[in-house]
Amino acid sequence: MAAAESEQNLRTASEWTIHKGSCFVLFAYDAARSVNLDEAERRLHAVTQRQTIPHKRRAPSYFEYQPAPLRFSQDTGTGRLGNFQIHSAVDLVVYDFGAVAVIYRLPIDGLFTDLLNLSDELYDNEFLLADSRQRVNQLLKVIGDAAAQANLAPLVEDYVIFHIESFVQPFDAKRLCAEHGPEIAQILRAERQTLSDQEVDDALGAKISFGVEDLTIVDWNAALLIDRDGEDVRAVLDFANVELLEMRYLDQRLDRALDEAYETLSRRSVNLPRILGYYGAALRRVAELQVDNALLFEGVNNTLKLLGDQYLARLYRLVNRRFHLDEWDTSILRRIQTLESIYEKISDQAANRRMEILEWVIIILIALSIGIELSH
């Protein structure tokens, strides 16, 4: 009996042995208000290429970045992360709305269950975090004023994609999930302890396949992609994480903008010269906050066009639900509308103060006129 069980375990381990694959680790940052991609490309000394989504899933021609971000590679030399080797090149992707993504690649092979060690190694990895931030800072120095109002924000969005191109044995998605569902959940959540059935179901809840030989499972911190190619799927996952980063960053900016606007609205001045100039400056400042945040919101949401019910569009909708991007959109739009409401209140307040001043001026002029008449 023990021999039969041991043989079964060996057979299962052999069937789920990775033949070829890569682990992609992404760090997304907001680095500038906007980037002139043509000028940035001209200034970069490395070989660059504009990134597009390969149309390998019968995606329509209008499924594309607008404008295409700038993608280039940097040589990192040989390096290791624990027991895992880091690929000698790291990719940087620059978006026109000011975001920069740094993407590392680690080759993977061997037993599928060994991915848990890699997932644990990558969770909150300080080395890659510091290295990626340094690379973005160096990039900003190279492109100079091609990046408008360059300022690397402290906020970062990191994500891991375990991309398995092939197993030693033929792939069967149902069997993999049935035999290794708990292990997949642990890998996606970088969690060594055994997870509950509810946690496993939640981790595996966002699945999608195009054919019988591919599978994508999307979780909050990581994704499992089993596909002989999968570059297009990775591109959608990469952009969704950049979008999430910008939504989080924009949410923080709007919180600060609302605090500043509330302070402006509640401020009072009894100095007449200050009153005359104060409201004009306040209105300009609130208007600038409105425009800056609205432009960033529109820039992020209009960069990737996903139309129709094609596979990648369905994948994006799945990722959208997993990352709660619609909820972020709703929250941000509500804050922008609140900012607009504050602008209107300041404008009304300014109009009322001007009317009060005008009434006092008229009263004073009438009083002076009467005083002059009486003096004669």
Short structural summary:
The protein is of the alpha+beta class and 376 residues long.
The residue fraction in helices comes out at 40-55%
Give the uncertain stretches in residue-range form: 1-14, 57-62, 270-274
Instruction: Find the count of extended strands (DSSP E, 2+ residues).
Output: 13
Largest sheet: 9 strands, mixed
| Strand arrangement, major sheet | 3-4-7-8-1-10-13-12-11
N/C terminus separation = 125 Å
The overall average pLDDT, rounded, is 80
Computed over alpha carbons, the radius of gyration is 28 Å
Which structural class do the helices and strands define? alpha+beta
Secondary-structure element series:
HEEHEEEEEEHHEEHHEEEHHHH
- Report the oligomer: single chain
General form: elongated
The tally of helices reads 10
Main traits of this protein?
alpha+beta; elongated; about 55% helix; 10 helices; disordered N terminus; 9-stranded mixed sheet; about 375 residues
Description:
The protein has 376 residues and is an alpha+beta fold. 53% of the residues lie in helices and 20% in strands. It has ten helices and 13 strands. It has helices at residues 2-15, 37-43, 115-122, 126-143, 173-189, 197-203, 231-266, 272-301, 311-323, 325-375; strands at 17-30, 34-35, 48-50, 70-75, 79-81, 84-86, 89-94, 99-111, 147-148, 156-167, 207-208, 215-218, 222-226. It has a nine-stranded mixed sheet with strand order 3-4-7-8-1-10-13-12-11. Helix 3 runs parallel beside helix 5 (173-189) and helix 7 (231-266) packs parallel to helix 10. The chain is elongated. The N and C termini lie far apart (125 Å). The model is unreliable at 1-14, 57-62 and 270-274 (pLDDT under 50).
